[in-house]
Amino acid sequence: MAKKKPYRFIVYLAARCAALVLSFFSRRWALALARGIGHLGYLLVPSLRTKILKNLKFAYGEEKTSRETEAIAEKVLGHMLQTAFDFLRFSQFARSRKVPPFIETGEAFSLCKDILQEGKGLIIMTAHMGNWELLAGIFGMQGFSGAVVGRHIYYEPYNRWIVALREAVKIRTIYRDQAVRDIHEQLKQNGIVGLLPDQDMDNIRGIFVDFFGRPAYTSIAPVKFALATGTPLLPAFLVRVPGDRYKLMTGKLIRPKMDGNRDEAVRRYTEVWMRCFEEMIRQYPDQWAWMHDRWKTTPQKLASQKKEEVRVS
After folding, report:
1. Which residues form the domain of 167?
2. Distance CA 32, CA 237 (A)
3. pTM to 2 decimals?
4. Is residue 84 part of a domain?
5. 3-state secondary structure of 32
6. How many domains does the structure of the chain reveal?
7. C-beta separation of 120 from 190 below 8 A
8. Is residue 126 domain-resident?
9. Is 100 contained in some domain?
10. Rounded CA gap, 8 and 132, in Å?
11. Is position 2 within any domain?
12. Max alpha carbon distance in the chain (Å)?
């Protein structure tokens, strides 16, 4: 059982108050407010600014000048807050039962319908960039059967609220500790499962693959699910474009196959989707969550932890 921490109630209360206040603003003014608060946060919270710049410089190395990385860093928090502000308005979007007019979807829905005709479901993979929550939401608004895999937030009232916001747009939440069983069930029913596998999580099974020229510890779960079920993988991203609009962009459909050694297949197809993610992040670098320590797990650290586990046991 997680320990009770007072700040969790404060965060929850602040989010609920923000949602209430935003309901009185037009979307245009709400997003402008998000950008302004994000810029202030970048200037006034040096620890966060330092972390964002450190990760950008680690990723790009000599590819970008300090001025270029700073220009990206200044916009990151504003983009994250715009994502949060639009998420808080989910219930308003849901009432219309239509994909909002500020979202350009192109042929993505037709593509997904064609894939689902195969009867094996679909795994949509995205990153913490653009608006990943609204990406899931528009599929629900369009009538697709969908679920997203996420962590259970420790503060239960906050968790129930977030889950309810997703359910308002017909998206079910699958918690990570129930993921294997529930994902298989969702795919068996020819539904869509949304995964966010772009972050460094050392408590899951993964491998090191190249990401911005550096070894990054990466989940092997997407490819393992695809190999086990025959379900294809589709990288998709809802990115922010000028005019306070979003554009749904899809990568090349990935159909993992067992060509010989299983471990080799897992590595090969994990590298494929990671390259797709990197290409998209390079296109829209200020929309990715650079405050996350994506390269915190190193081969040396992982080896040390395993040795410690063996010694303790």
Report:
1. 7-312
2. 22
3. 0.92
4. yes
5. helix
6. 1
7. yes
8. yes
9. yes
10. 23
11. no
12. 59
Residues 6+ apart with CB under 8 A from 189: 121, 145
* Tokens 């998000």 -> residue: 34
Question: Hey, what are 61's tokens?
Answer: 């190395």
Cross-strand partners of 241: 245
Q: pLDDT tens string for the chain (313 positions)? A: 445 577 788 888 988 898 888 888 999 999 999 999 999 999 999 999 999 999 999 999 999 999 999 999 999 999 999 999 999 888 787 777 789 999 999 999 999 999 999 999 999 999 999 999 999 999 999 999 999 999 898 889 989 999 998 998 889 999 987 788 999 999 999 999 999 999 998 788 999 999 999 999 999 999 999 999 999 999 999 999 999 999 999 999 999 998 778 999 999 999 999 999 999 999 999 999 999 999 999 988 887 776 554 444 3
Buried-exposed string 278-289: b where 16+ CB fall within 10 A, e elsewhere: bebbeebbbbbb
| 65 SS3 class | coil
